[in-house]
Amino acid sequence: MYTNNLVKSSGYYTRFNFVYTVACEAQTGNLERMKRYLMRNRHSWFLTRVKRAIKDYDMIPRGAKILVSVSGGKDSISLLYILFLLQHYSHLDFQLEAVHINLGWGEVDTGPLEALCTKLDVPLYLKSYPVASIIQKRGEKSPCALCAKLRSGIVNSIALDVGAGLVATGHHLDDVVETFFLNMIFAGQLKTFLPKTYLSNTGLTLIRPLVYVTEKTLASLREKEGLPLIHNPCPYNGNTKREEMKDLVSSITQRYPDFYDKFLTSLQNVSFENLWKQR
Ligand code: SF4
């Protein structure tokens, strides 16, 4: 059972600093020039890779409606902001909405997220689901796996309710690498997640536009743009096997600084004939 307290929050279109600058330029008739300037000089450092991933995997068809799953951490907040920029300052044509699920781990202040969505004029759905008590009752050994499964189920059901064909999540390049090592070290499998997945049971498509972008880039973006964060009160937060993988990847990148790019190239350059006979 879950609490169905769906709340839609939308508001006036209040602009961020750069959008405000664009508006001022618009008054003097220089809007197009300003937009081009902003795209070239301010956002190109992180948008280029996002646009390439979207293009490489044909993620966003024309006229699509995208529901962004926003936990409130830097990854999902950055994704929301990046998609907002792409919606307004790229050739991509799509609608954008957001959803946040309260998982029941404790008090969560969604005020900053609601304020951001109001500023961006992105409709936000707030929903509660007792994931915490389900995990605690079951005494789950892998709480994050069950949590992710339950959360994606509820996000998908909201996407269907609001008529969104695409669900976007903030998984980035570090997640790709860490998931690869998690599977190899703990499950004995050579795999990670895909940039785009069609879910045949729902007809939805899951997209991960940030798969070419590192976590460090997103942290820097969040800081530079002053994007808010929502504290996650979950006791498992920062205390998972994934954290161990972060340490592992960090030690590799210290020794081999271009590891991320090499890893990405490797994923797209698999020598299938040299893979061993499958059991
Ligand atoms: S850290 Fe907590 S909130 Fe995050 S996935 Fe794991 S169980 Fe869920």
Give the overall silhouette. Answer: globular
Low-confidence stretches: 1-29
Q: How many extended strands? A: 7
**Mean pLDDT, all residues:** 87
Distinct ligands: iron/sulfur cluster
Number of helices: 11
Walk across the major sheet and give the strand order.
1-4-3-2-5-7-6
Q: Any idea what the radius of gyration is?
A: 20 Å
Detailed description of the structure:
The protein has 279 residues and is an alpha/beta fold. It has a single domain, classed as HUPs (Rossmann fold), CATH 3.40.50.620. Helices cover 50% and strands 12% of the residues. The chain has 11 helices and 7 strands. It has helices spanning 17-27, 31-41, 44-56, 74-89, 111-120, 131-138, 143-162, 173-187, 215-225, 241-255, 259-267, and strands at residues 7-9, 64-69, 94-102, 124-128, 166-168, 196-199, 204-207. It has a 7-stranded mixed β-sheet with strand order 1-4-3-2-5-7-6, sandwiched between helices. The chain is globular. Mean pLDDT is 87; it is low at 1-29. Bound molecules: iron/sulfur cluster. The site of iron/sulfur cluster has 9 residues, from helix 7.
Notable traits:
seven-stranded mixed beta sheet; Rossmann fold; alpha/beta; 279 residues
Q: What's the short version?
A:
Helices cover 50% and strands 12% of the residues.
Write the layout of secondary structure elements.
Elements: E1 7-9, H1 17-27, H2 31-41, H3 44-56, E2 64-69, H4 74-89, E3 94-102, H5 111-120, E4 124-128, H6 131-138, H7 143-162, E5 166-168, H8 173-187, E6 196-199, E7 204-207, H9 215-225, H10 241-255, H11 259-267
Parallel strand pairs: 2-3, 2-5, 3-4, 5-7
Antiparallel strand pairs: 1-4, 6-7
